[in-house]
UniProtKB/TrEMBL annotation:
Residues 404-414 have a biased composition (Basic and acidic residues). This is Tetratricopeptide repeat protein. Residues 386-439 are annotated as: Disordered. It comes from Aureimonas endophytica. It comes from the Bacteria.
Length: 439
């Protein structure tokens, strides 16, 4: 059975009427169109009428807020804003607009209220940062701390994470401070500075020295400055993590630098023992030049830190016993002799045998001269040969022994002077192995 034409026409008419009603713009759309056409007064009148009639829905209030703010009526804009938030208190977009609006109008208490509500729902890093800054400027540091420490670490900017880590570290919560900085761009391998330094200190203070050493070695391999490396080594050393400190201090540097500066800093900060171990660790494959440099640094450090007695005892240890090292003993004795003269090595002179002195013949020649033994001094100089490391020192020693021979090359002569101190038999050591064997 075919439908009646009248019913079809009636149905189409109803559909057209419904579609027409749906296409009639609502109040919010009409406000938008009027404002777009520049008919601000008409839009304001329409909004006021809708508000007075109780028909101001949240979309209308949002549009009226934008309209009043653009027209320079902050009081009415604030009223529309608060009306909207009473209807929709959890609207994050409008809360963020409200925070910006109150910030522009310098109504900081209202701005803080909006940000508190916003961060409790779904705040961004910028929201947390602004709220924390407002509390800090107002002297409300407890509230600032609460904001920073309740915010997800991933939502905080690197600057805020650093601030939060400082607060945690100041309260002794070093493990939490380290976790706050974990994975921060400021503590990446490419970064240096305050964040990385705090991160390393927090790791050490929270008992994670091994992890700190591993991270430090990675940073050194990637070009960490010597100054930063020294600070991290010192932090490990002062915490008693000597093994980790040595591991970090001896990490190979891309620039080929040595650990001299680190050893010096350790000695100045009361860890002369660790500085000594660090210098010894670098002597494994050192040549004569490197050995002399290390021993001179050791002597300077001992003098600067009032550990001269330790240095003298080290000469004796290296000259005798199971850990004897003639080269090191001679180099250290020579370094001490250069800086403090004969008196400083007199206590260990009996242990400086001819076989040890031959490792540093120029030093041995000077020593023999002071002991009034020119023949031994000459033999030591002949053993020295052409010392490529210190030609100037060799020439100076040669001239000090006999200025005439230094210029003419003739046989060495020396006439005792009345002012010379008496020659003590116990201080004489034969430079010739044959003479030593005969005795």
């Amino acid at each position: 059975m075919r439908p009646s034409p009248r019913l079809v026409i009636a149905g189409l008419a109803l559909l057209s009427l419904g579609a027409g009603l749906l296409l009639v713009p609502g109040t919010a759309e009409r406000l938008t169109m009027l404002a777009r056409d520049g008919r601000v007064a008409s839009a304001a009148a329409l909004g006021e009428a809708a508000s007075n009639a109780g028909g101001a829905e949240p979309p209308v209030l949002a549009r009226l807020f934008e309209l009043d703010r653009s027209e320079g009526d902050p009081a009415r804009a604030e009223a529309r804003l608060l009306d909207f938030l009473r209807e929709r208190p959890d609207d994050t977009a409008m809360l963020r607009k409200a925070a910006a609006f109150f910030g522009d109008s310098r109504n900081f208490p209202r701005q803080r209220d909006m940000l508190e509500r916003l961060t409790a729902i779904d705040g961004t890093g910028s929201d947390f940062e602004t709220l924390a800054r407002l509390y800090r400027l107002d002297g409300r540091f407890a509230d600032e701390r609460r904001v920073l420490l309740t915010a997800p670490a991933s939502a905080l900017s690197p600057a805020l994470r650093l601030r939060a880590a400082h607060l945690l570290s100041a309260d002794g919560q070093d493990a939490e401070a380290a976790r706050m900085l974990e994975g921060s761009p400021e503590t990446s391998i490419e970064a240096e500075g305050e964040a990385l330094s705090l991160y390393m200190r927090a790791l050490v203070a929270s008992g994670q020295a091994a992890k700190a050493a591993v991270i430090g070695v990675d940073r050194v391999a990637d070009g960490l400055s010597v100054g930063e490396q020294a600070q991290f080594v010192l932090a490990l050393a002062l915490a008693g993590a000597d093994a980790e400190a040595l591991r970090l201090a001896t990490a190979p540097r891309p620039d080929g630098g040595d650990a001299s500066a680190i050893a010096w800093m350790l000695g100045e900060r009361g860890r002369f023992d660790l500085a000594t171990r660090l210098l010894e660790a670098g002597l494994g494959d050192a040549d004569r030049r490197g050995l002399r440099k290390a021993m001179r640094l050791y002597a300077d450090l001992a003098l600067a830190t009032n550990h001269l007695g330790c240095a003298v005892a080290e000469v004796r240890r290296l000259a005798s016993g199971s850990a004897a090292s003639p080269q090191r003993a001679a180099a250290l004795a020579a370094a001490l002799f250069e800086r403090r003269g004969y008196g400083v090595i007199a206590p260990v002179r009996p242990w400086l045998t001819p076989s040890i002195l031959r490792e540093e013949p120029l030093f041995a020649a000077r020593l023999a001269r002071l002991e009034h033994d020119p023949a031994a001094a000459r033999r030591f100089l002949l053993q020295a040969g052409e010392d490529e490391d210190e030609p100037a020192a060799r020439q100076a020693a040669f001239e000090a022994l006999d200025p005439v021979e230094a210029k003419t090359g003739t046989e060495m002569r020396r006439t005792p002077r009345p002012s010379d101190p008496p020659k003590h038999p116990s201080l004489i050591r034969a430079a010739d192995p044959d003479e030593e064997a005969k005795s």
